Amino acid sequence: MEYFFYGADTPDVLPIGEEYKEIKNQRHMYDLMSEIWCEYSCAPRYRSEWSESNKTLGQCSITSFLVQDVFGGKVYGVPLAAGGFHCYNEVNGIVFDLTSEQFGSEKLNYDLQHEQFREEHFAAEEKRLRYEYIRDELRKKLI
Question: What are the backbone angles phi and psi of residue 71, rounded to the nearest 5°?
């Protein structure tokens, strides 16, 4: 399969714990998430634009923090012109962004300058609930 997310061609990142040991690498995680991302898990402000052909739209922060649960590392953000950040992951020097496809051909600056923290993001209950939804759906797939 050909992958188009940023960092798809980087070396494998492996799970850090037993809970997610069935996940082979970041490409396998992308495959699993592609079956989970949905209109409900999309950020409310983007839901009217979400579609099966643009599954990654509005999924960045919740996906990045779930990726952190699976692979460790840190979550960083690319500042957006409209405000806020687009989240992505760095694990052991490997940078990847499972939700980058929502930007099409736009090039983002993955400069590791703006670390993001779940405590800040999940202060918004709707975001925490969306994260819990994708986490629980991922766990179901691994049973």
Answer: -110, -10
